[in-house]
Design goal:
CATH architecture of the largest domain: 2-Layer Sandwich
CATH class of the largest domain: Alpha Beta
Order of helices and strands: EEEEEHEHHEEEHEEEEHHEEEHH
Strand content: 15-25%
Number of strands: 16
Distance between the termini: 6 Å
Number of helices: 8
Largest sheet: 7 strands, antiparallel
CATH superfamily of the largest domain: ATP-grasp fold, B domain
């Protein structure tokens, strides 16, 4: 895991390659997810990988899938390289690409919505509220400031976008597409997972400001939470000791990288499109350290990086 992985190449059928993960077919019921160290910002995949990022995403997801299994079942089977190789012997010679960053999962039919839960108003929600006092066109309480806590948390679904940004939609949009019963199930599952996650993170010094979940249905119709869960890529993790409403917050994610690129955009040195500018080594290192620190605080142990 000490050598960053830009892309895996395993002797299995490649189902798809995303911004961060490769998804391989193991058999009709099982997939293998491999999280690379690729990183994207402003919808552009950058040239430089962030060391240990893929392992943090995989191992932190495995931690949460197991810890919150009593709340909502997941597609998780194993993130242990030995168990994966025992199950898929053709991967024996590819252990270095598996260790820490590969996850064996049940195959599901993904549902076409991001199930976002917002415990604080920030990001695209704050941008819309600041302009119109709404979220996805629906009114919110008056007088909120940036990063204000939302009580209770809000289920705020969004469309999945293969290119560009996701779009916030209302619960009724989800109900119209999937049926009200399934939409209610997604809402209650998402809120329960969020409460379980933030209840664990809070005494460890992390505010989970918001997060997104993905769900799929198994062959028997059972709803499962899939993909990744409560990671720095799918959530905003804020250090509790630095929280102050009324401004943007520092976070345990790719903030150093985004801040650097945003500065280049403001200075007119990058137009925001591919190809991206090179990243200074200090920015890459600072980003890697944020991911590792989030893992350590949440799990109570340092990530094994050798």
């Amino acid at each position: 895991m000490t050598t960053p992985l830009v892309a895996s190449a395993l002797p299995l059928p490649l189902l798809r390659r995303g911004k961060v993960r490769e998804v391989y077919e193991v058999d009709r019921d099982t997939l293998l997810l491999v999280a690379s160290d690729r990183v994207s910002a402003f919808d552009v995949v950058l040239r430089e990988p962030v060391p240990h990022k893929g392992a943090v995403l995989t191992q932190l997801s495995a931690f949460w899938f197991q810890r919150l299994a009593h709340v909502v079942s997941s597609h998780f089977l194993s993130a242990d390289a030995d168990e994966i190789v025992a199950r898929v012997p053709e991967l024996t010679d590819h252990r270095s690409a598996l260790t820490g960053r590969a996850m064996l999962v049940r195959r599901t039919t993904p549902l076409a919505f991001e199930c976002v839960v917002r415990g604080y108003i920030t990001g695209s929600a704050w941008a819309e509220y600041r302009t119109s006092g709404t979220l996805a066109g629906e009114p919110l309480a008056a007088g909120l400031v940036e990063s204000a806590r939302l009580d209770p948390p809000i289920f705020s679904p969004a469309t999945k976008a293969d290119v560009g940004h996701d779009e916030n939609v209302t619960f009724d949009n989800v109900a119209a597409a999937l049926g009200r019963a399934l939409a209610e199930q997604l809402k209650s599952a998402s809120l329960a997972l969020y409460e379980g996650g933030r209840g664990h993170a809070a005494p460890r010094g992390i505010i989970i400001a918001d997060t997104k979940f993905e769900f799929g249905t198994a062959s028997n119709g059972r709803l499962l939470v899939i993909d990744e869960i409560l990671t720095p890529d799918s959530s905003r993790f804020w250090p509790a000791d630095r929280y102050a409403p009324g401004r943007s917050q520092p976070s345990f994610d790719k903030q150093p990288l985004r801040d650097y690129l945003a500065g280049l955009k403001q200075e007119g040195k990058w137009d925001g499109d591919a190809p991206p500018p090179p990243l200074p080594p200090a920015v890459v290192q600072a980003t890697s350290e944020r991911y590792l620190k989030a893992y350590e605080l949440i799990t109570g142990k340092a990530l094994e990086t050798t």
